[in-house]
């Protein structure tokens, strides 16, 4: 497949696959964040960015930016997939994520969240907290990987994940949230027809990824039905537990 350019500074992409990942998990901690559309991934990632200085990258946002970038040879292709709520070909998505991570690392940023919605701002971490110390080294990948080949490709080519944060939410709750969001989001896929397709895609292609990592003991499941504040409390508790486990190892 021909190389694509990143939306920011348009470097040419390296051709995958590789023998070793681009980034070592001893330098870089990767968290995959998954959940159905409307489960609240973007909302909670924004909280983590605001409070703990994660770098948040959205596979969906990177794809939308590439789709809108003048001259992109993949713009039309991406547009079609997004409109149908389908998974964009893995090479495109993984390459965009790696590019964005590399850019951030070159700028000295070592913390990432990757999800469907980019947070509005990214303040510095609070000083002194134990939690801060561990989150400081964290990179998180959210709304990704949406299917198994993305997971294995990302782990082999870019960086093995530390764990997967999974927002568990029933479809009827997600549907209502997305229809509400659609009133103001301006997103072409926040309508009933696209939402239903996105639910089906999630169940058929993304849930197996959660199952796979669950078998490896690498899933942190969060009940996403509560209020945003309550969900965030659960996220922080779960992160604290995971990072404490990491200290103990
Ligand atoms: P995702 O990134 O998983 O698609 P979002 O974070 O964009 O989901 O949330 C979808 C919509 O639901 C947004 O309008 C958001 O404000 C709202 N929302 C997010 N979390 C909650 C929650 N816990 N309770 C109620 N509404 C929520
Ligand atoms: P999101 O913004 O996460 O809701 O994603 C919107 C759309 O972008 C999806 O319905 C897919 O078409 C595409 N997309 C987002 N993330 C991925 C991904 N990891 N792999 C492939 N396509 C994606």
From TrEMBL:
Protein name: Uridylate kinase
Residues reported in the UniProt entry to bind a ribonucleoside 5'-phosphate: 64, 86-88, 143-146, 150, 187, 198
Region described as Disordered: spans on this chain: 1-21
EC nos: 2.7.4.14
Locations listed in the record: Cytoplasm; Nucleus
Subunit structure: Monomer.
One Pfam short name: ADK
Domain of life: Eukaryota
A single Gene Ontology CC term: cytoplasm
Reaction(s) this enzyme catalyzes, per UniProt: UMP + ATP = UDP + ADP
Keywords: ATP-binding, Cytoplasm, Kinase, Nucleotide-binding, Nucleus, Pyrimidine biosynthesis, Transferase
Main location: cytoplasm
A biological process term (GO) from this entry: 'de novo' pyrimidine nucleobase biosynthetic process
Gene3D superfamilies xref list: P-loop containing nucleotide triphosphate hydrolases
Cofactor note: Binds 1 Mg(2+) ion per monomer.
Region annotated NMPbind, chain positions: 58-88
InterPro entries per UniProt: Adenylat/UMP-CMP_kin, P-loop_NTPase, UMP_CMP_kinase
UniProt note: domains: Consists of three domains, a large central CORE domain and two small peripheral domains, NMPbind and LID, which undergo movements during catalysis. The LID domain closes over the site of phosphoryl transfer upon ATP binding. Assembling and dissambling the active center during each catalytic cycle provides an effective means to prevent ATP hydrolysis.
Binding site for ATP: 38-43, 181, 226
Ranges where the record places region LID: 180-190
Protein task: Catalyzes the phosphorylation of pyrimidine nucleoside monophosphates at the expense of ATP. Plays an important role in de novo pyrimidine nucleotide biosynthesis. Has preference for UMP and dUMP as phosphate acceptors, but can also use CMP, dCMP and AMP.
Any one Gene Ontology molecular-function term assigned to this protein's record: nucleobase-containing compound kinase activity
Co-factor(s): Mg(2+)
């Amino acid at each position: 497949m021909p190389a694509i350019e990143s939306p920011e500074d348009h470097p040419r992409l390296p051709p995958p696959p590789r023998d070793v990942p681009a980034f070592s998990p001893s330098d870089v901690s990767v968290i995959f964040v998954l959940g159905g559309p409307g489960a609240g991934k973007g909302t909670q990632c924004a909280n983590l960015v605001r409070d703990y200085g994660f770098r948040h990258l959205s596979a969906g946002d990177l794809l939308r930016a590439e789709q809108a970038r003048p001259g992109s040879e993949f713009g039309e292709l991406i547009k079609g997939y997004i409109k149908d709520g389908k998974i964009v070909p893995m090479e495109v998505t993984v390459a965009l994520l790696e590019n964005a991570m590399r850019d951030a690392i070159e700028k000295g940023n070592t913390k990432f969240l990757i999800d469907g919605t980019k947070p509005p701002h990214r303040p510095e971490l609070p000083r002194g907290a134990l939690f801060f110390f561990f989150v400081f080294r964290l990179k998180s990948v959210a709304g990704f990987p949406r299917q198994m080949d993305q997971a294995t490709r990302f782990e082999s080519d870019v960086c093995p994940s530390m764990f997967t944060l999974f927002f568990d939410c029933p479809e009827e709750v997600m549907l209502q949230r997305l229809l509400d969001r659609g009133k103001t989001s301006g997103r072409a896929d926040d309508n009933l027809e696209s939402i239903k397709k996105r639910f089906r895609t999630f169940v058929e292609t993304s849930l197996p990824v959660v199952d796979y990592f669950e078998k490896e003991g690498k899933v942190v499941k969060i009940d996403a039905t509560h209020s945003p504040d309550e969900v965030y409390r659960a996220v922080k508790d779960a992160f604290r537990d995971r990072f404490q486990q990491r200290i103990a190892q």
